[in-house]
Amino acid sequence: MAKIKITQVKSVIDRSERQKLTMKALGLRKISQSVEVEANDAIVGMVRSVNHLVAVENI
């Protein structure tokens, strides 16, 4: 499967609890932190729900 690099670009302060938990599940805790993950359906769905807080690039 393809890998994607997800980088947090905005803070989760003042966001809903659901969005905070999604960011935690993706492994993101700080602004400018990046993770590389497999691009499966679950991950793509999580990224889509917090797309205003992250930047995504294909690897």
UniProtKB/TrEMBL annotation:
Alphabetized UniProt keyword annotations: Ribonucleoprotein, Ribosomal protein
Keyword Cell membrane: no
All residue ranges annotated as the Large ribosomal subunit protein uL30-like ferredoxin-like fold domain in the record: 4-54
Domain of life, per lineage: Bacteria
UniProt KW Ribosomal protein keyword: yes
GO terms under biological process: translation
Gene Ontology cellular component annotations, sorted alphabetically: cytosolic large ribosomal subunit
Any one Gene Ontology molecular-function term assigned to this protein's record: structural constituent of ribosome
Classification via Pfam families: Ribosomal_L30
Similarity section: Belongs to the universal ribosomal protein uL30 family.
Subunit relationships: Part of the 50S ribosomal subunit.
Protein name: Large ribosomal subunit protein uL30
Organism: Mucilaginibacter arboris
Lineage of source species: Bacteria, Pseudomonadati, Bacteroidota, Sphingobacteriia, Sphingobacteriales
Gene: rpmD
